[in-house]
Backbone:
């Protein structure tokens, strides 16, 4: 239960908003971090904490691409293939990334580490091809840099289970 595990963080996030219901997005991030995706249980918990109807949380989850309604890999690579990025080779980059990971868009690799998604503009059009991986931008990518990124993430996955820094980021995001 995130209400118990992250009681202090939740209290701090809610305190930053004049109306506690406005804390829904960071709390959804927290729940997703805990459960790996916005499971029904995660939605119910967030709704309960904020006195919302679970369908309100569900509708937000469906609207924003950063919330996942199905299980995803430890690292979600959201590659922008919107117009500006497409003009700088984003579609070819997506194909290359899928080939390297032996996967397809919206699928998760067999080791559970990576999910590739395509998304609309992330606001870094001049640094394409680019992707957002677990809230961190990786920009001006090419095949070599993608290989380095995969190697770094695989190494990181071995050395840690769930980074507490993600929780810190979620709390900071609400400031
Ligand atoms: S079009 Fe890709 S970041 Fe803007």
Residues:
């Amino acid at each position: 239960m995130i209400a118990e595990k992250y009681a202090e963080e939740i209290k701090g996030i809610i305190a930053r908003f004049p109306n506690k219901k406005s804390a829904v997005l960071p709390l959804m991030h927290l729940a997703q971090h805990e459960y790996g995706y916005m499971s029904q249980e995660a939605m119910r918990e967030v709704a309960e904490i904020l006195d919302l109807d679970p369908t309100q949380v569900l509708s937000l989850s469906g609207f924003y691409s950063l919330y996942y309604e199905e299980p995803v890999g430890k690292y979600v690579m959201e590659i922008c293939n919107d117009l500006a990025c497409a003009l700088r080779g984003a579609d070819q980059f997506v194909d290359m990334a899928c080939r390297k990971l032996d996967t397809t868009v919206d699928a998760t690799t067999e080791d559970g580490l990576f999910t590739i998604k395509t998304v609309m503009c992330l606001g870094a059009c001049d640094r394409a091809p680019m992707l957002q991986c677990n809230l961190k931008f990786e920009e001006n990518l090419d095949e070599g840099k993608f290989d380095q990124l995969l190697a770094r993430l695989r190494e990181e996955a071995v050395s840690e289970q769930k980074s507490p820094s993600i929780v810190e980021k979620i709390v900071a995001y609400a400031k």
